[in-house]
């Protein structure tokens, strides 16, 4: 039960970081492989606020998300916007270039070492139940991630902004014709995806660690979540993250000698059975 709980917490953290990629890739149709770099920005912002400025942990989390969203807006307006109509290969090459630039920048300013982060006392320790030891911080992660997943799903499917976003992606010309500011919608969406990545990166420092190699180290995991869950599906990203998180933790606990083989095996099986992802739309023939 404890291993299962840790797997769920790991999956929820994976969801928090990767759901922003699902938003930009699935809803905006932009292959942003630099998503992990935005998560790294959030992690470094959180660590800097905590360790150098003495900002409380719970305040540093939203600040990390907001500042990363601001970075996302700057990049979207100056760089990404020029590539919305480009081929996916161009988008991949561009975003991979950003990844290596961000890694070099982080190495220059913060050095190659892991960044220390000390959780506040009320988020440390464990809650002991019969047959289950729950880490307080992991429980906090699960509750926060569920709340964000619910809010995101409501926003995309049940608000005016969500309807405008879907219209802007499906037919930008028609959307402009009915008065939707497509450029502003895309900027806000990109800011949302970046901000979620930054928040996830800040929350993940304690469990995943933080060094300049972060964007490459976990990029495959983020892509697996989007591919297995279905591009653009919030529910799909949540379910895929939970499945992969549990499988990853259970696999590493019971068969540590095979490393991450289990998670890739599960990905292959799922994509063979459902190539469009668990909650993805089937392509029209």
Summarize this structure briefly:
Helix content is 72%, strand content 3%.
Describe this structure as you would to a colleague:
The protein is mainly α. The protein has one domain. The protein is 72% helix and 3% strand. A two-stranded antiparallel sheet has the order 1-2. Strand 1 and strand 2 form a beta hairpin. The longest helix is centred in the last third of the chain and has 27 residues, at 182-208. It is globular, with a radius of gyration of 19 Å.
Per-chain topology:
Blueprint: H1 2-27, H2 35-51, H3 57-78, H4 88-110, E1 126-129, E2 132-135, H5 136-158, H6 160-170, H7 172-177, H8 182-208, H9 214-217, H10 219-229, H11 234-254, H12 261-273
Antiparallel strand pairs: 1-2
Structural class of the helices, strands and pairings?
Answer: mainly alpha
The helicity comes to over 70%
Global Rg: 19 Å
Sheet with most strands: strand arrangement: 1-2
Distance between the termini: 45 Å
In total, how many domains does the architecture comprise?
1
Number of beta-strand segments:
2
Treating each run of at least 4 consecutive H or I residues as one helix, how many helices?
12
Order of helices and strands: HHHHEEHHHHHHHH
Report mean pLDDT, rounded to a whole number: 86
User: So what's the overall shape?
Assistant: globular
